[in-house]
């Protein structure tokens, strides 16, 4: 397989200058990268300033302090909380039986026969 020569057939003045001194191409490239970095810093600073401004704006609820450590309302949680409180204060007490009813109640009747 044939190899290509390192030298072009018709070298231009730019090719010859870059081959003699590679810094002719490298130094402007590095200067461009550094200048772009400083140029972009103003845009990034503007971006962060706008974000900071949005964070500092308060809504009406935040100004009034309505949401200080407030949990979201859940109806199931309230139901279980109230039902557990009702069970804590409950105490079994005997009531007087109606007259004519024995102490242990009425004995169960026989279940009806199955057809």
Automatic annotation (TrEMBL):
Compartments, as annotated in UniProt: Mitochondrion inner membrane
Recorded topology in the membrane: Single-pass membrane protein
Single Gene Ontology BP annotation: mitochondrial respiratory chain complex IV assembly
One GO cellular component term: mitochondrial inner membrane
UniProt region (Disordered), positions on chain: 86-115
Pfam families linked: COX16
Keywords, comma-separated and alphabetical: Membrane, Mitochondrion, Mitochondrion inner membrane, Transmembrane, Transmembrane helix
Function per UniProt: Required for the assembly of the mitochondrial respiratory chain complex IV (CIV), also known as cytochrome c oxidase. May participate in merging the COX1 and COX2 assembly lines.
Similarity-based family: Belongs to the COX16 family.
Protein name per the record: Cytochrome c oxidase assembly protein COX16, mitochondrial
């Amino acid at each position: 397989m044939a190899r290509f020569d390192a030298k072009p057939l018709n070298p231009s003045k730019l090719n010859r200058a870059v081959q003699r001194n590679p810094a002719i191409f490298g130094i402007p490239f590095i200067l461009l990268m550094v200048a772009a970095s400083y140029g972009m810093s103003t845009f990034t600073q503007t971006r962060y300033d706008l974000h900071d401004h949005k964070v500092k704006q308060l809504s009406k609820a935040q100004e009034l302090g309505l949401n200080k450590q407030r949990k979201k309302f859940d109806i199931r949680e309230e139901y279980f909380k109230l039902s557990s409180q009702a069970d804590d204060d409950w105490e079994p007490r005997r009531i007087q039986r109606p007259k004519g009813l024995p102490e242990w109640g009425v004995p169960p009747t026989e279940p009806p026969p199955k057809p």
